[in-house]
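Protein modeling request. Please complete all fields; requests missing the sequence field cannot be processed.
Requester role: graduate student
Desired output: 3D structure, C-alpha cell encoding
Chains: 1
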Amino acid sequence: MRSTCSEQWWSECSRYNKGSSNEQEKNSANHSGGHCACACAHDDNSAYNLRYAGLVLAHKHFTITEVIWQHANCQIELSLCMWYNLSTMNSGKISDAILKRSIVNLIHHGRPVCIDGADISDSFIACIQSGIDKDYGAEMAAVKAANNIAAAGGKVAGFLTSYMLPARSDYREIKLKSLTRRMLAACARLGGAATDAADKASGSAGRSAEIIGGDTYVSEGVNEPVVTVSCYGRRDCEAVDVSKCEPGMDIILTKWIGIGEAVRRMNNPEDCKRMQQRFPAGYLSSADDYSKWLSVRDEADICIDILCDNAYDGRLCMHDISGSGLEGALYTMSEECGHGYDADLAKVPVRQEFIEIAELLDYNIYSADATGSLMIVTDMTDALMKRFEEKGIQATVIGKITACNDKMLRRHDL
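Delivered output (414 residues):
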C-alpha cells in the first residue's frame, strides 16, 4: 500500500501507468501488453530493480503474480497486477483468445456429470436467475438459482453462466477474469463438496457443483455486466408442492430473515461506509462471513431425508424466500395453496445486527431480501425440529396454515 512505499517507488510505477518519458522504456512497456503497479515495497533505493522486474513479468504476460527479490540482506516484495493492452473489448461475441484466456482456462471439470452433461428425465430440474455484477448481484444470482433447486428437492449438478458485458473503455479483460473467478468460487460453495473435508478425505468430488458452460457477449445496451445463471439438478424424492399445503400445518423458518439484504448492503461501498461510521469495530461480521449463510442446501437436504424416509408419514413443502422477503413468501404460499395463514411476528427469527442495519439504511426487514432462509410447511414438525437441532441449524415455528383466507402477520402477544 502507498503508506509503506516511498514517493520514489510510486514515481517509478507511474512511469508505466501514465507513460514513461524515456522512449526506450515506453516501447518496452507497450510491447509488454500491459501496465504494472506497486502494491508494497521494502527498500527505498531499488527503483531500478522494481522497474526491471516489472518489465520482465510484463513480457511474460502474467495477470497477477508476486515477485520476491533479495539482495544485500534486504527484501523487496512486489505485487504486480497487469491487464492486457486491449483498450475495449469489441461489441458482439468475445474473441476465442479472450474466451480461452479469461474463462475456459479457469474452469477445471472434475465430475462426470459435468463433463457428459445432465440427463433429461423426470428427475431433472432447472432454474434460471439473473443479476447485475454490482453489490454481490452476480454471485447472488447463482445462490438464488441453487436455492430454488434445493427447495424443489434437488441436488445441484452444474451451472451455465452467461455474461453480457458493457462496451465501455474501462471494462477490460482483467475484470472479466475477476468475474469468472468469483463465479467459480460461488458455484463451488453452493455445490459444497469440492471444499468439504469429508470429500477431500475420501477423494470424492461428492456434491461439488461446477460451471459446465455458458456464453459471453459485449453489448452497448448495458452499462454494467449482467450475469444469467442457469442451475441444473436432479432429485430422487419429490417434495410436496406448496399448493398442497393444508390447514393446521406448521410454518417453519430456518436461520434468520434479512441475510440476503445485509450481504448486498455490505457489498455496497456507500452503505458499507455508513455502517462503519455507525457501528463499533467488531460489532458486524464481514460480508464474506454472512454470505456463508446464504445457501439453504443443508436444511433442504434434511427435509428431503425425512420426506423420503418410510419411517415418517406426513407431508412437507419447501419455499425459498429469496428476494420477495418474508411478507412476499407468505403471500405467495397462501395464494398457491388457497388457504390463509396466521404468523407471529414475535417468533420470526432475526439477528439484532440485521435490525440495526435496516434502521440505519431505512428499509423494512420483513419485506427485504431474505435469501438464506427456507420456509417449510409441514405436519412432521417434531421430527424435523429434532433433526435440525442435531445438525445445529437454527429453525423456528412462526405460525400455521388456516382454513380461512385471512393473511395475518402480527404479534400474538399484543
